[in-house]
Write a structure and sequence with these properties.
Radius of gyration: 16 Å
Oligomer: single chain
């Protein structure tokens, strides 16, 4: 399997896992403090979305540095790869958020 495809799949599932895992644990915590777990889970899923993206691509500075340096040098292949990784991570985070919304039935 190619490097791009394997890293893109990993980025998807890392972002997905951050959103789903964080939301589920927030729901468990909500039970302990007598709050409605579905509302807390849905709110946390929305808040965790951007952090899941950051966690999946390995931070915000390195991918942006790769995009900047290669763009100005005219090397578009690494730029397209980084954008692809960011898109896969976003899709994973969004899929996790939609799964939590489905589980909570809209909060």
């Amino acid at each position: 399997m190619s490097y791009f495809l394997s890293k893109a799949i990993l980025d998807f599932f890392i972002a997905f896992g951050v959103v789903v895992g964080g939301s589920m644990l927030a729901g468990i915590g909500a039970i302990f403090v007598y709050m409605p777990p579905t509302v807390v889970m849905f709110e946390q899923a929305s808040r965790l979305k951007i952090w899941a993206l950051v966690a999946a691509v390995g931070g915000t500075i390195d991918p942006m540095r790769v995009i900047e340096s290669n763009m100005f040098e005219g090397h578009l292949s690494p730029v397209a790869q980084q954008i692809g990784f960011i898109l896969c991570a976003f899709l994973g985070a969004h899929t996790g958020t939609e799964l939590i919304r489905l589980i909570c039935k809209g909060g």
